[in-house]
Give the backbone structure.
Amino acid sequence: MKMLTVTVLFTLASAFAQDALQITFTHHSSASNTFWQAVQLGMNEACELIEAQCDMLFTQTEGDANQQLANIEAALARGTDVLITTIVDDNIFDEVIAQAQADGVIVLASNVDDSEGAAGNSRLAFIGQEFRSAGYELAQGMSELFPEEGPIHVLVGISAPGQNWSETRGGGVLDFMADYQAANPDREITFERIDSGTDLAVTASRIGAYVQANPDLTAYFDTGFWHAGVARELESLGYAPGEILLGGFDLVPDALQGMQNGYIQLQVDQQPYLQGFLPVIQAHLMDRYQLSAWDVNTGKALIEPEDVDAILELSQQGYR
């Protein structure tokens, strides 16, 4: 049985290796963003399986869509069979993606899609999280920890104002809060948004200043993982774990540490490894067998502090 398994895997890998593709993955983040380590690991392992030539292109500045566009143009000029990219802006990537497809390049969106999906951009498929429902379910899950009596005040951090992933996740949180407010007409329930930034220190400073001016804050939701900096800031300000509830996205080490320390109550896992692995395999199958593209929702699992120990080793290895 063991020999058969090895033979099957060898045959599969050999079949994948024929006519190796040149694959380029471009996105909107810098190399210092720990989230992308898991995406890159997924891409690398898929590329190793099919023996493709693969590159991941980072931006110099976190969230710079214009730098990302320049990376796409450079990759296409060099020649690539497959372009995997995030679509953080609804407009600036439309022309270059349409031209790439006209030139025969397979273009897949991963991690972030146009806010209108296929209607807004001609990319062939999207592999990633459904952001609005993920934001809604994050807030819904956290609401179970809200005080049973008294006022509720919630702050939503829009990490990257104007970018699809942040605005849509934040919109999901705000949608839930509006529903929660309507369902509890006899309680004082307020909520607002803030430009929270995409840097741990910046987010910590902005939310720390807000907390000091608004000590009645019940919960802070981040649309990324930068509330991990807020967790440390709350501790330095003398707040006890759970005194202000914190929730956000992605299982990066800083966020997991905040959960272990009791300052972060809830995280949403979008399974970034899959966002690197699956588009590579999909592109290969499309190229080799002329299959149509298909969308993949990589999930919105809610992770609680009691789940951290089981996840931590996999996170350290780059898989979660």
Q: What stands out?
A: Confidence is low (pLDDT under 50) at residues 1-17. The longest strand covers residues 152-158. The radius of gyration is 21 Å. The chain has eleven helices and twelve strands.
